[in-house]
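Action item from last week, closing it out:
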Amino acid sequence: MRFVSIGTSQKITELVNDCVRSRKFSFGLILLVILLSISITLIQTLVLVKLQTAPPISPLASAINAPHALGTASESAELVQNTVIPTNNLVNDTKPEPTVKKTENNGIGTTKPPTTHGSENTQNVVSVTANIGRINFANNKFGIYTNNAGGDIDLAADLVNSNGGDWGWILIPMSVHENGTEGWNSTFGKLAEKHLIPIVQLIEPQAQTRVPTDEDIDNIAKFLADLNWPIKLRVVSAFNEMNASEYWGGKIDPEGYARTLNRLIDQLKQRSSDFFVMNGAFNASAQTGDPTGINCIKTDLGVNSCYLSEIGFLKRMDAAVPGIFKKLDGWAAHTYPHPAYRGRPTDSRVGAESTFEAGRNTIRSYQFEQRLLKRDYGLTLPVFITETGWPHKEGQSPHGEWYDASTVADYYKQAFVNYFLKDPYIVAVTPFLLTGSGAFSNFSFIGPEGNKFPQWDAIAGIKKVSGDPPR
């Protein structure tokens, strides 16, 4: 409905003029008419303001601001500082080596006994929508990380699409120098056949001494755009744990990574709006005392590396490319049970973590990252846990302090049933690792001889959702 106040004013003016010309008026009458005209104009102005349509907001903003209780498990509501998001309207990585921790993080904090949060045979259906609001589908959160996409697809499908599941996730590393279109199209065709959604994690094979160049980014963006993706959604994670020098040219360079990430996002989005771009997951547990300081250590896995706290790393990224995190569609996270991979799924705090840092060294470290993104950058993003899990003793790398395979299986079950599946912020969980040899065999679900460790049955036995992504 439209209101035009000038028409009424004109009529009143004409009435006054007629009265003047005919001399059938008095001063009181004129004053009354003028006051009436002013009153009508004010009332119409107020009505117009009231009826104005508010500017449209993005699907992400509307989802975040909707008055709906947070449906997370355990302490999640407190840990994300009461940020709310509907459970049915979420908006909208990994590495060649397992994640590492600082050796000075000692001791396990207060823990609670396992608790049951509803039936273990249920999983919330999560709708996934990128920031620009183009995709929405029922989602099977189960996924797996594989270093051998060509040989692991059948096994991955058997695991993540078991017990009622369909269209689960598979994380596949891809070299930033890749150019084998025919091979990758064959792999993507097999993924489509087996109903698996790929998360492509870009890697630099010589990460200890080299970082991607602008030419590398432009070439890989074109390569990714030319592939025949299994579904409409094209999920890409930009590299791996860059706050550790071993994964970014042997140096700590938040500014360089921010510019690389920004270029990748722009190059991909220019080629297709279907790309869904995430950060490379960070090592959340790496702490340096002073968030701006750098600490060099020998990790639990025997690797010499230098670290910058994620807090300081993100701050320097944002200073180099202001607003860089607002360009992300989702947040990739690595959530490992520290210290020394011996944390339990029920751990809510390790050592002397502050309230803000609570869970930073646990399988729920993504909640610490959510608080960090919300506090410092005003963001709430959907979470893709692209690495998580416990190593077991039964592998080729001897670590006597690691748990036996049966305990690891039980912990996986607790983590999924009590936390990951009940948290509406989580879109996908891809544990590290499906198959592997050497040190990787201790993390793997299937041993080098083809034997399945108990964690396979624990995950396969959980009832799953039949996903339905647009193709």
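Closing note: The chain has two domains: 6-51, 59-460.
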